[in-house]
Design brief:
Largest sheet: 10 strands, mixed
Distance between the termini: 56 Å
CATH superfamily of the largest domain: Pseudouridine synthase
Helix content: 10-25%
Order of helices and strands: HEHHEEEEEHEEHEEEEEEHHHEEH
Structural class: alpha+beta
Low-confidence stretches: 1-19, 88-92
Number of strands: 16
Number of domains: 3
CATH class of the largest domain: Alpha Beta
Shape: globular
């Protein structure tokens, strides 16, 4: 039983009772400049209360310029507001018995290693199989179905990016963690394999990232974009590839993927920002031997301050098996630099 409802009963419910997702982006024009974020959204979504909208704003369901904001934030011309919220609360989601790789858990938060291929939360097209579905089931199971813990997302990973995520289990934890992300007090390190050989052992990519409704991809480097900075260091070199550790100092949407492509070294397997480079490689004899159903980007380290104990903690996770195997294959068919 899951909170008094069996999984079979939950699966059989009318799909209209499962949350309908809203996914929109707004480019702020002069007429909305100076408006509070919560007031702006309240005008857009008349059927959602301001209290619920504020709760969405404090999590990663509403982002301003790719970052978690606050309800009272005054919008400026050129701001990009991204909305991905449910019209019904998260507790309406169906818990699903999906295995989780739990790195750490206490009564305040949980740290997991998300696999590639898993969405963080449902969207318009996908209503099940997400991290939130798995967390709802896990929390219900660990509390014996007597206490429904609302998973508090404070950041995201792309569907095809694997690695560490922290999720709050209480309102206090979610608020404190959200603030750390908003103020850029969280340290993140990603491992990525990129095309080409980078000669410098370390460096910094500084290129503003903006949003354009009329182009694809919509997020890209542009002069009118927001400042974005990523540090990198070379971990290994191969004949046609470089293995990097990347630490984003800002939190723009798709920042690492965009910055690597801007540097001229797109991610291995990135079908959006490295489409041409990857298509050329995968059509070559070597490429035929090195297929990957995702891009090579893994969130390998996450450091933050515990929201209750105030202890500074760091979590590390190794590369998943498919990425380790790919590196071994590359090493066997290409020469190291």
């Amino acid at each position: 039983m899951v909170s008094g409802i069996s999984l079979a009963e939950a699966r059989g419910r009318d799909q209209n009772q499962i949350e309908e997702m809203i996914k929109e982006s707004f480019l702020i024009a002069q007429e909305n400049a100076g408006t509070r974020l919560d007031e702006f959204l309240e005008r857009k979504y008349l059927n959602i209360s301001r209290t619920r909208l504020r709760r969405f704003i404090e999590g990663p369901c509403v982002l301003v310029n790719s970052a978690i904001s606050r309800p009272g934030y005054k919008l400026a011309v050129g701001d990009v507001v991204e909305v991905e919220i449910a019209e019904l609360p998260v507790t309406a989601m169906i818990p699903e018995p999906i295995e989780l790789n739990i790195i750490f858990e206490d009564e305040h938060l949980i740290v997991i290693d998300k696999p590639a291929g898993m969405l963080v939360h449902p969207n318009v097209a996908v209503k099940s199989g997400t991290l939130l579905n798995a967390l709802c089931y896990h929390f219900s199971k660990t509390t014996g179905g007597t206490n429904r813990i609302r998973p508090g997302l404070v950041h995201r990973l792309d569907k095809n990016t694997s690695g560490i995520m922290v999720i709050g289990k209480t309102e206090r934890a979610v608020g404190a963690l959200s603030k750390q992300f908003r103020l850029q007090r969280v340290s993140k390190v990603y491992t990525a394999l990129v095309h080409g050989c980078i000669n410098e052992d370390e460096g910094v990519i500084e290129a503003p990232i903006g949003f354009d409704l009329n182009t694809w991809p919509r997020w890209q480097v542009m002069e009118t974009g927001r400042p974005a900075r990523t540090r990198y260091s070379v971990q290994d070199r191969f004949d046609r590839f470089t293995l990097l550790a990347l630490a984003p100092e800002t939190g723009r949407t798709n920042q690492i993927r965009i910055h690597c492509a801007h540097l001229g070294h797109p991610l291995f397997g990135d079908a959006v920002y490295g489409k041409a480079e990857n298509e050329r490689f995968f059509s070559s004899p070597q490429g035929q031997l090195l297929k990957l159903d995702r891009h090579f980007l893994h969130a390998s380290q996450l450091s933050f301050r515990h929201p209750v104990t105030r202890e500074d903690i760091t979590f590390n996770v190794p590369l998943p098996a498919e990425l380790s195997r790919l590196l071994e294959s590359i090493g066997s068919i290409t020469a190291k630099k």
